[in-house]
Amino acid sequence: MKKHLGFVLNIAALALFIPGIILPMFSMSMEMTARLSASTLSSDLLNKELSLLATIEELWQDQRLLVAALIFLFSICIPLLKTLLVSLAYFKKNTALEAKTLNFVASIGKWSMADVFVVAVFLAVLSTNHAETANNQQFSILGFKLDLLISSETFSAAGLGFYYFTGYCLLSLLGTHFSHSSLKQGHHVGAPG
């Protein structure tokens, strides 16, 4: 029963993985406002939504190749490899290949937790809302006093992709746990005793 549940959870995790890497993981906007006496001028300095794939692409284009490659490896390649291997093990029931495959998946599972860590750190840095910063200057031109107030505000938030990817991580861990524990349970049942 655990084997079937593990397989179903891994397939459900894959269904969450795809929107998790395609949909925006976070959004960030930065606005600057200048007020001169009664006049106000406002401008968006930055307004961006990035998915995991778009982030990897942007890092690659900015020549941050190592960071892009690591995020791609830990957040895209290893999760897909894990799902493929758990599915292979499911269809190779009660064989040595099933045991070797699930043991390998359990060993790379520790490494695949790096994707959760990388994304969490990445979002922690980017999803910090910065309070409004203001700079007030006073000018005197031809005897008239003018107040110039320049302020900027930064907002960021987690997007739908973050929640899908988090759901993927949790379901995948649970599914892999059930698949691997069914293997251990099968060995205990058949053990002489």
From TrEMBL:
Q: Which UniProt keywords apply?
A: Membrane, Transmembrane, Transmembrane helix
Which Pfam families does the UniProt record give?
A: PqiA
**Residue spans crossing the bilayer:** 7-26, 65-90, 102-126, 155-174
- Organism domain of life: Bacteria
Protein name (database record): Paraquat-inducible protein A
Q: Which organism is it from?
A: Thalassomonas viridans
